[in-house]
Amino acid sequence: MSFRRDFITKPIFSxxxxxxxxxxxxxxxxxxxxxxxxxxxxxxxxxxxxxxxAYAPATLTEExxxxxxxxxxxxxxxxxxxxINWEWRDLPPEAWDFIKxxxxxxxxxxxxxxxxxxxxxxxxxxxxxxSSRSLAAAVTxxxxxxxxxxxxxxxxxxxxxxxxxxxxxxDGRDIPCFGLTSPEAGSDAASMIDTGIICKGTFEGREVLGxxxxxxxxxxxxxxxxxxxxxxxxxxxxDHLIGHAEDLGITVALIPTHLPGVQIGHxxxxxxxxxxxxxNWGRDVFIPMDYIIGGEARLGQGWKMLMTALAAGRGISLxxxxxxxxxxxxxxxxxxxxxxxxxxxxxxxxxxxxxxxARIAATAYLLDAARRLTCAALxxxxxxxxxxxxxxLQATERMRIAIDxxxxxxxxxxxxxxxxxxxxSLYRSVPVGITVEGANILTRNLIVFGQGAIRAHPxxxxxxxxxxxxxxxxxxxxxxxxxxxxxxxxxxxxxxxWGRSWTGGAFAPAPDAGDATGFYRQLSxxxxxxxxxxxxxxxxxxxxxxxxxxxxxxxxxxxxxxYLLSAALxxxxxxxxxxxxxxxxxxxxxxxxxxxxxxxxxxCANLPNRFVGVLLKFVVQPFGARxxxxxxxxxxxxxxxxxxxxxxxERLTPDIAHVDDDRGLARLEKAFLLVTGSEEVAKxxxxxxxxxxxxxxxxxxxxxxxGERLAAAREAAAKVIEVDDFAPEALxxxxxxxxxxxxxxxxxGEQRAAS
Length: 755
Ligand SMILES: Cc1cc2nc3c(=O)[nH]c(=O)nc-3n(C[C@H](O)[C@H](O)[C@H](O)COP(=O)(O)OP(=O)(O)OC[C@H]3O[C@@H](n4cnc5c(N)ncnc54)[C@H](O)[C@@H]3O)c2cc1C
Fold this sequence. Notes:
There is one protein chain. The protein is of the alpha+beta class. The strands form two sheets. Strands 1, 2, 3, 4, 5, 6 and 7 form a seven-stranded mixed beta sheet that branches. The chain has a two-stranded antiparallel sheet with strand order 8-9. Helix 8 (120-131) packs antiparallel against helix 9 (135-142). It is globular, with a radius of gyration of 29 Å. The site of flavin-adenine dinucleotide has 21 residues, from strand 1, strand 3, helix 17 and helix 18.
């Protein structure tokens, strides 16, 4: 008998049954998938920075480095993104062959099964490099190495299944795809109506117990060329052939696409990105039980398996592609802004251009920092589910902003499509990244905080588990223990948040990090404010918070900022506190702090319980949201990072595919180096008010060799500024009869008049 438990906790226990979020099985399985990591520290309101700084950075083995500088570079050299997208509408056959031969599809498959056995970081680096050359190639390589048959077999497959399929997937004898999405079930994938009925059937001449499958899937990447389809469906046992239950739940199985009844559809064309993608169907396709991944024992466990696999995969593929996109945008746009002149000066010198350029550069810094930190966690064997959701959402969203900025700065040069446009394809690919692996609106409004609040909160999951306990007495005991710890934590957080907010974070904990020390203090301050507000929202809204998506999204934004900014600080530390990079770090911090302050203000203003809303404002934001974002000085310094050839520029945009082919980025890079290398000569010419370099040589303003250098730079810049045009008949078959569009319309007019 305990007084506290029986007289205080018990009524709260009964009340909490009503207010804490109720969960469906699929929600519970999604929540329980993966681990918590640095996100849990951020949620305590008092992150331990020494722990963050002590995490070993992600590194590559010699073998992984050799692969990046060997087969990956070779593959990049084979890829002509314009031809792939607009002429061939596919990767060239030699690229497909090369990808299979060099085991690009088996990067994550262990060596014992014939794969490359690469770490998550190596996988990420490969995707990053390929993305900077061809999105279609990057997606083609990415998919078999993320959520799909390979990953699922490695984690959940039986020994026999692993021995049979993994070597075939590793060397490309089988091409996998994964079918989850169907026309009626997109974001709510668990509502699929695809079925597998347990029955007896004949397979390879023998009568066996198995499943008769019917499905319709769409949007399936690699679907049109896949030989092995990982399929999600709902299993039913109406005749009770294996037990009492009829509805067994979501199950995943391997379907060789040559089986009778499998229909592989035509191709979708996703935003003119020509990676293979399309629908497929199955009509009464029979598979034996051992085609279920993990065998009969895994019937009904598909959702949990998928969510577990997603917890890691979502942190690699799209974040790597997005980090590459932002780095590409930074490198290319800085160079273009330097060589493109209007009103007699480089456009990069205009403040109006500096502002978006600084945003691109800082985004590249931040995204790569977050990618590396997440890969470090994955390399260490973590599966941080909340962080991988944050990464998928934030990386693709920020890539979108960086690419939009890059397009605006390039203006007509990037709008006009053709082989000389190195940005158009990236621009078109943005909505694909936003949509796949959990569309971003859903991820922002429902997943990041919805999952984060429960998983990463120090006590909430234990309380919910106690409430879900079927043995009520046992549940009450567990709840009593977790609840009072939670209360103690909440009071500590209240006083911490109050103290740190009212002193502007001046005394908040921080490691000695040189110029960056103050940033740690601010993050400690915001983390405690976040933890307090989250607790109060959960307390006053309970299960209703799930439906308050706008509030949930704001909490998710703060948690995301805390994670990304931690990553930026870690990067600055790991790279040896480079003074030149401080502008990028400062930009990220100022912009992130502004978002955090605005979201806190919005939460206080919109919390339905007005008393708590006003109280929270008094505690965490007595003077309102006050951070304005990066100063003009920081913006100017940050933009300079990509306007000059420098070590800082190389650190910001490392290892972006360079192929010496006089196209795209290579042509731009050459012009950039020539223009910046002849800047002094151009200055002398401007001072003498001369444009013709021959004349300047004659007058002794510059030397002959300086003049030639200037001429080469001008010629290279002019080549970059060029855009493409096409013969009318090359663009449309209706002009077939005439090479001249004027002639075509004249003919048409004459025909009309005659008839
Ligand atoms: C190019 C491409 C490749 C793909 N590859 C694969 C693949 O290989 N395998 C596979 O199985 N699937 C694949 N998909 C499917 C992809 O995962 C889905 O498109 C995605 O899950 C969204 O589903 P939907 O497009 O039907 O959008 P919908 O579910 O119709 O959503 C429409 C909008 O509503 C929002 N929304 C939905 N629910 C909520 C909510 N509760 N709160 C707030 N907003 C909400 C979404 O965020 C979205 O903005 C691919 C899709 C594309 C476009």
